[in-house]
């Protein structure tokens, strides 16, 4: 009976997993309860229980209790010995360095990154409900933050003092540490919902902020420092050293100074690495703001070096033309240099610094150049809105050509979207300049029409209106291609109400049948109208002279001046055409003939033979009167026409030669035939004042424009 009981309920089996005395008591009670339960459940054993003596039952209980206590004591003793061994032999402390801990950090980041962010957030939320099950952050993460914070603190002490670059290894180490901090920030982002990690994540973010501030300061300092060095080769009036510096830059075409506006390879490389770390760390905005600010200041300094000042539209409107005229060449220089030099190099610089971020470099370049271009285009539009006058035309054409030639060449530097925007804005400014230029040239008509003065030019010289108009036209010949383009593209504003247009257009077609294309061009038609108006105006002014001979001289002077100016400009002559030139030359010959007829026909009449002889005998009184009349007329002509002006040497010579060819042979013939009838002595001296050679001398004094000249008696 005892054997069966022990087999059925062995106490050792019931107490084998007990760990403390409290549990022993509970288990002992449980055993007793089980035993009682077994007793009730197995009535067949009741007889045995009843037969068992009380002392036997007590012995079983005592034996069970003693065995349990013994096991508990052994476990406690073992734990105590283990604790003593740990205290006597603690594990060696790990010594962390930034280099060694970085490997652990990289592995930790890789492990975190392998789990999707949303999965980490879900796990963190679930684990945060039970602090005992929260994800454990390794100890080396805190150590890493300590080391990086120490490095950041050192850089904060040296920021802005140019200490970067003195120790490239230290600079690289710092950048690598910042890179890991940024990656760690990104990796820990999925654990933000876990309050157990809030302190560590906050600390990591703070260190990153400080590190990025150091990078931002160094980024700014590097841009500013090299920028100032870049000014030296471009400053004005530096003498031989300045020229030498320019030569060095020109000879070294592969130099980074030429490619990157003075920034060396090392500087560009450093800027590139800093920009990369700032952008990848989420500080793109701060990096771009610094770049925009410093490079924008560099562009402003370029304006200063060129000499072009920032002038508002209102200021341009208030400027006197003399002052504005001085600003326009500086504006032209600025546009050309920005378009061909600065913008090209600025794009290279942006692409080099932000080499891994083409969209950022393109955006920065576009924003920088846009501010400059807006300023330049605003100036052009402001100039176009100033009061228009003919003398401003050529400055406007210079601006038109600059906008036409320089800005489109920059299209390849920009994105398609910004290129289209730039094209639209520059076209608008160019059109306004072009329209103003057309109005100015057309105002030449008004200048001619309004010159209705009745005061004759002394001596029949070239009229100021003729000089002004033809110099204007000749100078316009230097812009003939531009004027053709301007009139062709903006002919809608060309005035069609010119009174001279219908007549002269029909004439011009007769003169230029061999060049129909040019005849049809808007500028050619406008030029023809100008010339027609000038001719009409001169004809009216010639009638102011009471002396018809002087009127002819006036028309010859002005006509010859016009023809010579037209012939002096290949472009204008080609536009006017040879038929027009031949017609003008024919008009000049007619004026010449009219002059000779009006001036010298009366004088030559004195040398005629008619009425000097009666029945073959010379009538002396009539002969004397003829000599007397000749002398008087010649003296008067010489006295008058020596004050007349023929400034064109060729025309002056032609007139004198033609006069000599008519007068001298007739005088020689008359003298040879009739001088013998004059009594030698006083009578000869009285009536025969001039010899043929004397007349030639006096004829050569005509048209000198010398008021003091007069008829001189023969010595």
TrEMBL record:
Spans annotated as Disordered: 1-92, 494-521
Domain Exocyst complex subunit Exo70 C-terminal: 331-701
Comp. bias intervals (Basic and acidic residues): 1-12, 60-72, 494-506
GO biological process: exocytosis; protein transport
GO cellular component: exocyst
Family: Belongs to the EXO70 family.
GO molecular function list: phosphatidylinositol-4,5-bisphosphate binding
Pfam families: Exo70_C, Exo70_N
Record keyword Transport present: yes
Function: Component of the exocyst complex.
Biased composition (Acidic residues): 73-86
Organism: Salix viminalis
This protein's UniProt keywords: Exocytosis, Protein transport, Transport
Feature: compositional bias, Polar residues: 14-36
Protein name: Exocyst subunit Exo70 family protein
Taxonomy, superkingdom: Eukaryota
